[in-house]
Amino acid sequence: MSTILSEKKTFSPWAKGGIGLGAGALLLVLVGLLFPTAAAFFPLVSLWCSCVLFYGALWVLHTAGVELDFFHRAAIIAFWAGAVLYFYWALGRRQFIYAWDYVNYIQKQFNTEAAFALGPVAGFKYIISTFSEDYTNFITLFTEFPFCLTAKTGDSYAFAQVFCVLPSLMLMLAGLTIKIGQILEVKNKFWYFIIGFSWVLTYPFLRMSAMLAQPDWFGLIFAFAILLLTLDYRFEKLEPGRFVLIFLATAAIILSRRWYLYFVVGYYFSYALLLFVSSAKLAKQGQKGLALRRVRNLILFGVCAMAAMVVLLWPMVSKILAFNYSDRYSYYNVGGIAVELYYHAMRTGLLNLILILFGLWLCVKRKKPSLPVLALCELMLSMLLFTRVQNSGSHQMLLYVPAYVILFLCGAAGLAESIEHFKIPKLCFWVFTLLFAVSVRCSPLTVMALPEFVIHAFHPADLAEYQRLDELTYDRKDKPQIQAMAQWLVEHLGEGEVAYMIPDDMLYNPGHLRNCDLPNHALDGKLPDSFSVPGTHYFPTGFFDARYVVTADPFPLSLAPDTELGHRFNAVFLQLRETTHQQVATFDMGNGTVFTIWERTTPVTREEVETYLHEFDAENAKYPEMFSSVVENWLAVHGL
């Protein structure tokens, strides 16, 4: 009997985890069948997806040969607790109204909740239907829980990411720290992990988008997974399990945000180039068989993976191939590669550049140049590709973060390995850098990674206006006035009536009025997006449908005034308004800006519409489908 008991099979932790996730999936199927419109279904799906993601992250670490001991796990928990406190403090000390890109995912979350309220089929169909869009609903699967338990404001959406995104992200980041330490054969593992992990975790542009309710950093989970699975893998043997994980991570990062494709292309090209060069060296050393096997396996996997990716993501791929992003996004290309290099220098900062030099010194000393070469090659290639379309904003720096993480971790290795020489100054340098990094203002206009006290004390005079706009948008003092104006529109707009707001600027835009009192958004469908960016925004026929028109004096112009379209539209309105509208309300924002609401008094005529259209003859010649075609369709529908 004892022999039988001793031979009884026990399940490994991996098997137990898989069984648990499988049981959870079956439970979700039952709930979906028995209670298809239950409010708890989508949050339960989200919780299950997050568990799958965490399990997958652990599996990636296992496949990559990375083990987390008690010290690593304790450090992750401690840093995560610190992140919770940081987000709670940073979000609570400002007044930020989420608009433009900063409300995009919150709105998607609301829309996905509404779809799942109709049933599981409608919910999943809605998510899949967005796979051809520039912003998919893939991330909403993971952010619904614990967002569903919050007040559903913009700040609570940002804070919820600490629980649904950050754990898996920190796990992958810790694994990557260990993996690079293995490759560089770091001996001082304690200081290396503490310095490296804390340094990359506090890098301001890692958390910048998260602080503004843009969960784009979610894609870094899969970027770090790709690095873990490939950095020291040379395709010497076929590993189907590793291949599946690489493929899934690549598909997931593309679904997270379209522009992560620039990282994918840049990294895989650089990685393949590195492998070909190393294989050529092997062939010269007489190991032709091994070199050919490496190249054969890489090509075999690459061709199969690319074919499968095209099939899986064909809606997105077909749109990318058919749409001229470099033409339509030219407004955001403010200087090409020269400006991009300047942005990178400012966003990286002097302290991080010093750290990178430590890493280059160590890699040269130990004759292990592959990591910095790979990172720099990927960084430059991705940068060259991306700047063909536009220059990067603060959140788009995320596609460069994997390369910077490699460089920072190499630097942490160099610092840790030489820590016994001038130990106190080096530790002070590290601690000062962390304090400096966590105090960086995470605002929409952040270009330089500087703390607020530095910005206030030392910003150049020629940046005074920029600084003023940054303060006005990051910590708003006019939220009560914006809420009052929004409430006026809610009270005065009848069924089927709409208003149109001419300013569409970082300082003031329709999104501020729609989202100033989240989760209430009573102006949805009553206040459409406005018109400001050439090649991106269509001619605003909604202006002619509007009962009320909202404009401001002075007209806000934080965008490029030479190409911004809204102020030109406003100039025509100022000429015609006395004959078409009457003033009905004003709102003083308390910062020098006064909003006026005008009510239409005369029916729209073809002559009026064409007067506005002729102001944009140059844009119409370039984008007739966005101007004259839109106008003619509107006129035809309205019998004009």
Automatic annotation (TrEMBL):
Q: Which residues form the signal peptide?
A: none
Q: Which spans are transmembrane here?
A: 14-35, 41-61, 70-91, 157-178, 190-206, 212-231, 243-260, 266-283, 295-317, 341-364, 371-391, 397-415, 427-450
Is the keyword Glycosyltransferase in the record?
A: no
Q: Which UniProt keywords apply?
A: Membrane, Transmembrane, Transmembrane helix
Q: What name has this protein been given in UniProt? A: Uncharacterized protein
